[in-house]
Specification:
The protein has a nine-stranded mixed sheet with strand order 1-7-6-5-2-3-4-8-9, sandwiched between helices. Helix 1 packs antiparallel against helix 2 and helix 4 packs parallel to helix 5. A hairpin with a 3-residue loop joins strand 5 and strand 6. With about 280 residues, it is an alpha+beta fold. About 5% of the residues have low confidence. The protein contains eight helices and nine strands. Keywords: Membrane, Transmembrane, Transmembrane helix.
Length: about 280
C-alpha cells in the first residue's frame, strides 16, 4: 500500500505541474513561464520520488537492524521456565565469548575443524611452517592429526621448511613413544627441536599477548596462525590471519626458539645436540 501511495503521489505531482504549465501556456499565453513551471515540476517530482525511495530504504534497514538487535532478548523474555531461563543465560554467555573472539579476528574451531584448517594452511604454505607442540606419549596417533601430518609431508615435498619445537618434560625425553615420534619427524626432514617445559618464556616475557598460552600453535608463511586453547571447552582452538595477532605469535615463537635445542641421532636414539657431543667425547 505504501508503495502504491508513493507512485500515486509522484503521478499527482506530475499532473499538478503539467496542468499549471498548460494553464500558463494556453490561458495566460505566457510560454516562458509555462516551460519553466513544467521543468521545475518535473525536477520536483523527481527529487521527491528519490527522497521517498531513500527514506523507505532507510526505514527498512533500521527496521531490520532493530529486529536483529531485539530478536534474541525478546526470545529469551518469552521463556517462562526458570531452568530454561538459566540455560538460555549460559548459552548467551558462551555466545558473547565467541563474538569477542570474532571481534579480535579469531575464528573458533572444534577439534576436527582445527586439524582440517591446519592441513589446508599447510597445503597452501609456500615458504615456512613454524610450530610449537607439547609432546606426550601417543602424540600424533589420532586420525585427524595423522592427516594433518600428511599435509606437512606434502609441504616438505614442495620445498617448504618446517620447524617443529616440541615441549617436553626433562624426564619424558627417554620414553619410547616420545623417541619414536621425534625420530620419525627427524627422518622426514623436519627441523625438530626440543624445549623443556620449565624453560618456556614466563608470562612477563610475552608482551601484548594472552599469557594463558597453551604453547601449542603453528604459524604458516608468517601470515596465518592456528592455536589450541589451554582450557577445555566448546572449542578446541582458533585461527587468525590478522597481522597484528600473527606478529604476537611470531614474537612468542622467537622467545621459545631461543630456549630450544636441536637434536641428533646416536644409535637410533634421539639426543639433544649437547648430550650427543658429550657421548661422542
Amino acid at each position: 500500500m505504501n508503495r502504491k501511495i508513493q507512485h500515486m503521489a509522484v503521478f499527482i505531482e506530475f499532473l499538478a505541474g503539467s496542468g499549471l504549465a498548460i494553464f500558463f501556456h494556453w490561458v495566460l499565453d505566457y510560454k516562458e513561464a509555462a516551460y519553466i513551471i513544467f521543468a521545475v515540476g518535473i525536477l520536483l517530482s523527481l527529487v521527491t520520488w528519490l527522497l521517498r525511495e531513500e527514506i523507505e530504504k532507510t526505514r527498512e534497514e533500521l527496521r531490520e537492524q532493530y529486529l536483529q538487535a531485539h530478536e534474541i532478548p525478546e526470545a529469551i523474555a518469552r521463556i517462562t521456565d526458570p531452568e530454561c531461563q538459566t540455560r538460555a543465560s549460559e548459552l548467551m554467555t558462551g555466545t558473547k565469548r565467541t563474538l569477542a573472539l570474532l571481534q579480535q579476528g579469531y575464528i573458533p574451531l572444534d577439534d576436527t575443524e582445527f586439524y582440517l584448517e591446519g592441513a589446508k594452511l599447510a597445503d597452501q604454505a609456500t615458504r615456512s611452517i613454524k610450530a610449537v607442540d607439547p609432546l606426550t606419549s601417543g602424540w600424533g596417533s589420532r586420525g585427524a592429526m595423522l592427516n594433518f601430518y600428511q599435509s606437512n609431508l606434502r609441504a616438505l615435498d614442495r620445498g617448504v621448511r618446517i620447524t617443529r619445537i616440541f615441549v617436553v618434560g626433562k624426564d619424558e625425553l627417554i620414553e619410547p613413544d616420545v623417541q619414536k615420534v621425534l625420530l620419525a619427524q627427524y627422518n622426514d626432514d623436519i627441523d625438530v627441536r626440543i624445549v623443556y617445559r620449565d624453560e618456556l618464556p614466563v608470562a612477563s616475557d610475552i608482551s601484548g599477548r594472552d599469557t594463558n598460552s597453551s604453547c601449542d600453535f603453528a604459524i604458516y608463511d608468517d601470515q596465518s596462525v592456528t592455536d589450541v586453547f589451554i582450557q577445555p571447552g566448546k572449542y578446541f582452538g582458533r585461527k587468525t590471519s590478522q597481522q597484528a595477532e600473527v606478529e604476537k605469535y611470531l614474537r612468542l615463537y622467537e622467545l621459545i626458539e631461543h630456549s630450544a635445542q636441536t637434536i641428533s641421532i646416536n644409535d637410533e636414539q634421539v639426543l639433544l645436540a649437547g648430550e650427543a657431543l658429550a657421548v661422542a667425547s
